[in-house]
Amino acid sequence: MNYTENYKGIKLDVQSVNLDISDSEQAEIRSAIDKISRFANVINAVDVYFKHEGTGKDITNVVGMRVGVPGPDVFAEDKGMDEHWKVLLKSVTDKVIRQLQKLK
Questions:
Q1: S-S: 91 plus which of 10, 26, 78, 87, CB 3.0-4.6 Å?
Q2: What is the full DSSP assignment across the chain?
Q3: Superfamily assignment of 2-103 in CATH?
Q4: What's one Pfam family here (predicted)?
Q5: Could you tell me how far CA 100 lies from the centroid of its own chain?
Q6: pLDDT tens profile 32-88
């Protein structure tokens, strides 16, 4: 499932490989953008991806986020066995915020 939207003037592109992103997960992504926008003056785009790696019992969930800001883009990724994407999304959001704080 892929979807694109304009959220508060930010181009949001979400990609998920063989997964459906629920409305509650979409709301979590928007909440993460709200949190990130407090640490960046201008955000042009946010790309988020969700995917599974591995097979059988060794499946790992992966969440990645690229935040397009003036200058170099900020990217973070996290992997985990947790079935809940929300935990991984929060971790990625925190990593992006730390990078944005270093850029200031």
A1: 78
A2: -EEEEEETTEEEEEEESS----HHHHHHHHHHHHHHHTS-S---EEEEEEEEESSGGG-EEEEEEEEE-SSS-EEEEEEES-S-HHHHHHHHHHHHHHHHHHH-
A3: Ribosome hibernation promotion factor-like (3.30.160.100)
A4: Ribosomal_S30AE
A5: 14
A6: 999 999 999 999 999 999 998 888 788 899 999 999 999 999 999 999 986 778 999
